Input
Amino acid sequence: MSKNILTHFSEKEKELGYTFENPVPTVRLISTSEPDFMRHVLQTNHRNYKKGRAYDVLKLVLGNGLVTSNGQFWQKQRRLAQPAFHKKNLEDLFNVMGQTAKAYFVSLDKKRGTEIDIAREMMAVTARIALKSLFSDNTEEDLNTVYDSMTNAQRYVSDALNNPFIQIAYLVNGRKRAFKKDMKVLDNVVLKAISKRRNSDQKHPDLLQMMMDATYEDSNEQMNDLQLRDEMITMFSAGHETSANALAWTLYLLVQHPEIVTKMKEEINRVVGDQLPGFQDIRQLTYIRQVIDEGMRLYPPVWGVSRTAINEDEFRGVKIKAKDVVFCQIYNAHRREDLFHKASSFNPDRFNQAAKKSMPKMSYLPFGGGPRLCIGNMFALMEMQLILVGLLQRFDFKLIEDQIIDMEALVTLRPRYGIKMMLS
Ligand code: HEM
Output
């Protein structure tokens, strides 16, 4: 299971059905790709389910931020953070995004005529966008420090998640010490950025400012520095690797479907010509949006979410005891033949307005569901539309032959060996 968790669950599902019990040491895990069951856990009866062990490991990096917290504390934080993602603020963030993407396209231009790893490229641009959207006024050096220490820390946590016993080895082989050092560096940069902003008269149109100025409904107070630190690191972590993987996989699908690229280019010509889209244009790029939706169906960046039952529960005859874990298999649900006709084929038309309406509820969950739906979903969608448009306006991509393309399901679904393409 820890060798290839994705294949493990897909094969078990074929053998045992859409909902089955999977014995793992110390916990009873119920796996499901049944939309109604996922809806029960994530939405209808969500109060009985909390984020469990997997999220406790994530806390090592993310602290007690929106992704990892539970109960009333989570609810308070969510209410505080939600307005940062309202339309007016998204428009400001979109401008930061546009400038950052433009600078990235200029740097990519220098690689024309060479082989690139599109997964690595997409990670670089989305990290840049996330950092600039969070801390628009920080120095390049600080942004690079955040990126490097965060990447190391995330790798540490991913390994710990996939193998609970590895933490013992970490103590001996020095990785724990290195991890602590990375976290300290990260803390210092983020806390320094917060303090600099607190002492400045100037306002910036970024997430740090929006989260810093927001006040709790009950007390009218603002977040303290440590909580703000947790939320900033959470946003950076949740907000770039997911979009990067979605983009890399979508481009992988696109190089194999030139007819779809042609349709996208027609739409780009009609809506924006050779300009990058503005905030108002995004809504009109409907076909590009369908392509992204379909890319995330086949390769959902968050391939599964888990919840731990607080009290016992039952769903259609399945008894769930307190402390059982229910694992919602987003990847498996997206590839079910009975839910998606010819499920393994790449067909953006299944996401046109009419077809979308007839999709069974909670069968398509790239952003999760229920009250803990991704807070950054609109941010991510406009970011991905912007990057895809910019890339197709400027470049052509060709897949390098004879390479192994494989999925690696860590916290997000990554291409294990990258995806190499010729850029022209
Ligand atoms: C393609 C891009 C993205 C995907 C596929 C994605 C997916 C998800 C999913 C599935 C969840 C729910 C996790 C669960 O229920 O356990 C989630 C939560 C979250 N996401 Fe995203 N996300 C993306 C982009 C972003 C961005 C850009 C941001 C921030 C700028 C962000 C911030 C968050 C936060 C803070 C949460 C926790 C929300 C809560 O529990 O209240 N995400 N995301």
Summary: The chain has one domain: 5-423. The CA atoms of residues 131 and 393 lie 25 Å apart. Residues 66-67, 78, 234-235, 238-239, 242-243, 246, 301-302, 305, 366-368, 372, 374-376, 379-380 surround protoporphyrin IX containing FE (CB under 6 Å). The chain has a mean pLDDT of 93.
